[in-house]
Amino acid sequence: MRTLVAAVLVAAVARRLLVVVTVRGNSMRPTYTDGDVLLAARFPLLRRGRAIVFTPPTNVRDAPPYRVKRLVALPGDPTPDWVRDRQRFVPAGHVVVRGDNLRSEDSSTYGYVERAGVLAVVVRRLRAAP
Question: In which domain, by residue range, is 44 found?
Answer without folding.
Answer: 2-127
